[in-house]
Every structure is written in C-alpha cells, then in structure tokens.
Amino acid sequence: MASSLTTFSDEAKIALDTFSGRAAGLFSPSLRLGVTGLSRAGKTVFISALVHNLIHGGRLPLFEAQKSGRIARAFLEEQPDDAVPRFQYEDHIAALVNDRVWPESTRAISELRLTIEFESASGWNRMFSAGKLSLDIVDYPGEWLLDLPLLGKSFADFSREAMAMAALPVRADLSEGWRALAATIDPNADADEMTARRLAESFAAYLKACKLDERALSTLPPGRFLMPGDLEGSPALTFSPLLALGDRRPRSGSLQAMMERRYEAYKTHVVKPFFREHITRLDRQIVLIDAMQALNAGPGAMADLERAVTEILSCFRPGRGNFLTDLFSRRIDRILVAATKADHLHHESHDRLQAIVRRLADRAVTRANFTGADVDVVAMGAVRATREGTVKQGRETLPVIIGTPLKGERINGDTFDGKAETAIFPGDLPEKADAVFDVSGSQQPDANGPAIRFVRFRPPKLERTAEGVTLSLPHIRLDRALQFLIGDHLA
Ligand SMILES: Nc1nc2c(ncn2[C@@H]2O[C@H](COP(=O)(O)OP(=O)(O)OP(=O)(O)O)[C@@H](O)[C@H]2O)c(=O)[nH]1
Ligand SMILES: [Mg+2]
C-alpha cells in the first residue's frame, strides 16, 4: 500500500526538508509545535495566551524555567517559512485585552516564531548550548487533520465507513436526506456532473449539521467539506461516498469511476501537501478539546470525540503498522491532550474534567495501538474569563463562577447584555468518568438534560499596574501545559 501512497519525489522532498531543517537547527535550536483542535476548540486563544504570558513574564509557577528565573527574555522573531501567513498575534491580543472580545475564527494555516533566551539549569549544558530556543508554532484548522487517515483508505473503504457512521443513532436523522439520495443512485450509471454535485452538496450539508452546537460531533472527514477555503466548488470537493460498491473495478465513464478519481485527487492535491509541508515537520503536538461542548451535547458526542482523538493518534503512531510514519522527517515525541475552557467550571470540578479527558485519551491510545510518544492530559483554561465565589441558596452554599456573559447568551430565559457581571452555578460533572461515555442509556442527546450548563463569557478585564502596564492574561494550568510541551528543552 505504501508505494501507491508516496511517490519518489515526495520522499526526496521530505528528506531535503529534514536535511535543511537539521542544518538550520545547528545554529538555532528550534522546536515545532502543532496546535490542533476542531474549530472553536480554542487554538487561537491558546497560542495568543501562551505567547503573551511568555513575553510578559506571566504567573507560571508550574513552568520550571520561568519559576526559577532562568528565562532572560522571550520575543517574537521572523518566522522560518516565507510562504506561510504569519499568526496575527498583535491583532488577537488587542482584541482580547483592549476590546475584551475573542478573536475571529481562523480559516487557514499560520505560523509564528517565539524565541526564548534562557540560562540552562546545568553547568554542563550552559557550556555547550547557546541558551536559546526558537519555538515555531503552527495553527491550522483541526478538520484538516482528520483528513490524514483518508490517505490510507481507498474510495471503497471511505464509502463503507462513511455509510456506517451516518447510520449511527446520533447521526441517523441528520444523514437521512443524503442516505436516501445515495440509495437512488446507481454507481454504475454514466458519470453526470449534476448528480455528483447534488450528492456532494447533500453530503456536505449533513456533515455541517453534525458540527452544530446541539450535536457537537467531531469525526467529520473530508475536512474541506466543512472549510473549503479556496477550493470551494472545485471537482476535488465535488464527490460523495457511494452506497453498495462492489469489489470490481468501476467501469470507466461511470459515476463511481468519477467519484473515485475525485476522491483520489482530494488526497493527492489537498491532504498530502498539507501533511508533507506541515505535519511531518512537527516535534510536539497539543490537541485541544472542547469537552464542555461535547459534554453538553451528550454521550453520543463524547463517543464521537473519542473516535476523532483515536484517529488523530493513529496518524502519529510510529512503526511499521503505520503507512504514514515513513513520511515523517521528525518524530513527534510528546502529545498533550488538553481540555480547554476549564474556567467554565468551578475548580472543584477540574479534577473530574481531567479524569474524563484522561479516560478519553487512554482509550484512544489503546485503540490506536499507540506507543512511542508521551501522551499527557490536562484540564486547562488558556484565558481565564471567570473568578470563583459562593452563593447561598436556602441552606446550601453553591460554588459559582463569576464573569461577564457574552451579549445574547441566555440562561433560564434571561438574556445577557454583555456588560453585567453574573454569578453562575454551572452544575456538577459526574463523579465517574465512565458515565459520560455511556451511550447505552440515552442515545439521543439531551435525553436527561445536559449534565452541565454553560454560557460563554467575555474575556477578562485586565488589571493595570500603577505605571499603566497591563498584566499578563490570567489562565488555568497553562504553565503545566508549557512545562510538558517545552520544559525539557529549557532544562
Ligand atoms: N472562557 C474561555 N473561553 C475560551 C477559551 N478559549 C477559547 N474560548 C472560547 O472559544 C471560542 C473559540 O476560540 P478560538 O481560539 O477562536 O478557537 P479556534 O480553535 O482557533 O477556532 P477556529 O479558528 O474556528 O478553528 C472563543 O471565541 C471563546 O469564546 C478559554 O480559555 N476560556
Ligand atoms: Mg482559530
């Protein structure tokens, strides 16, 4: 299978990249960090908060190099790749800090280089290393990552899996229209552009519906069907899985042959270049998960999130079992699975959130048969938009979170104006992590109402010092994430 997937020129190109990467690395050690997550997971906010806290010497007690005062300075430098858009750090920070609004949704890849000058903790290292680390941070739409498994799947495999997934209880009603249409189509009929388009549009509409808040599903390839970018309307995006494909090769000129060709074109022209140019060069990876939204939507969404994480991990699995590993020029040695937006919960629930995500990651690691990289888990809030308090209700004292809900958010019929601060009791996460994955009891979302209820908050108001300097963005366990992701390179 491998030979049909990689051409000689791919491998040669990757070898060259590796070589030049290594050569460059001699002069300035660099670490490439991939920030992955489905859309709205919090990638842009995470990167902005990470850079802001490092540049402004934020409070990072669990980040050893910072805590022990060994970081001399952190600053932005010109990024290594001229052809990749720069991550608009300054704009995002201005929005967060000055206007207290969240950054807009990102639609394409971007990159940023942060250089850290530090003093090594060991005298031996101090002698040999320059005490300088360049952190290259790559931000890209998470949906695109879910395309990687397609590289190993034929059109028939893809069709079979897509059909099986569409029939799951949590998706069946959303996919009904597309499945009904697909059932009327004979794959052996003559290829016809209008049929292809109707099928593709119906399939894309189903994928988009899965992504909405109420379902919050995660495993939705092909990623460009959700975020087409400049490929909108191109033949490489005008295909759909087909029903009842035989084992025989499709007749030339048939609809099946056409769909298959376009599926292969999607892999060759969309998935592979992205993979080759960005993913194979990563050293570390953080996978951001908005578990809050999936928890809100129910066990079906949690199971789907787990499937997405499993598929992602299988792409990074080293060894012979993985056709993708031959392509890697560097080896990802650490992956952090981070539940974001923990500031929506009182800290008493953080351990439970972390237990749920650990449970999810552990099962994904087992299912993906994953070894070779350290995988860790953290419940994190890249930007902490709330503070904590208590509210008395009758004899009970409830732990609450206090913040400014975004304009238009609602709770119990009240609509917020985006100005007033409010105390909210978000509810408790279940004590046992298993409970949130259990689809046997309630397969439809919201059968018993959501376990937790959350509203979106505005970014926090930052204090200014007497000199008028704005303090760094508050966070929850961003320092722990940093320690895991880059701490060893600053030892
Ligand atoms: N309270 C809180 N909200 C957050 C945090 N991170 C992200 N959010 C919310 O989640 C939304 C999405 O965050 P982004 O960082 O833009 O998400 P993204 O992964 O870059 O999304 P795309 O660019 O659409 O792929 C924000 O607009 C905030 O409402 C956080 O740490 N705390
Ligand atoms: Mg973004």
Search tags:
491 residues, alpha/beta, seven-stranded mixed beta sheet, 37% helix, 15% strand, globular, binds guanosine-5'-triphosphate, binds magnesium ion
Indicate the topology.
Blueprint (H helix, E strand, L loop, with lengths): L1 H4 L2 H20 L2 E8 L5 H13 L8 H4 L3 E7 L11 H11 L10 E9 L4 H6 L3 E8 L2 H4 L9 H12 L2 H15 L9 H19 L43 H23 L6 E6 L1 H7 L1 H18 L17 E6 L10 H18 L6 E6 L7 E7 L2 E8 L6 E2 L2 E2 L6 E3 L53 H9 L5
Helix pairs in contact: 9-10, 12-13, 13-14
The structure holds guanosine-5'-triphosphate (GTP) and magnesium ion.
Magnesium ion (MG) binds next to α3.
Mean pLDDT over all positions: 83
SSE pattern, N- to C-terminal: HHEHHEHEHEHHHHHEHHEHEEEEEEH
End-to-end Cα distance, whole Å, is 42 Å
Shape: globular
Written overview of the protein:
The chain is an alpha/beta fold. It has helices spanning 2-5, 8-27, 43-55, 64-67, 89-99, 123-128, 142-145, 155-166, 169-183, 193-211, 255-277, 291-297, 299-316, 350-367, 478-486, and strands spanning 30-37, 71-77, 110-118, 132-139, 284-289, 334-339, 374-379, 387-393, 396-403, 410-411, 414-415, 422-424. Strands 2-3-4-1-5-6-7 form a 7-stranded mixed sheet. It has a 3-stranded antiparallel sheet with strand order 8-9-12, with no helix packed on it. The protein has a two-stranded antiparallel sheet with strand order 10-11. A hairpin with a 2-residue loop joins β8 and β9 (396-403). The chain is globular and about 75 Å long. The structure holds guanosine-5'-triphosphate and magnesium ion. Guanosine-5'-triphosphate (GTP) binds next to α3.
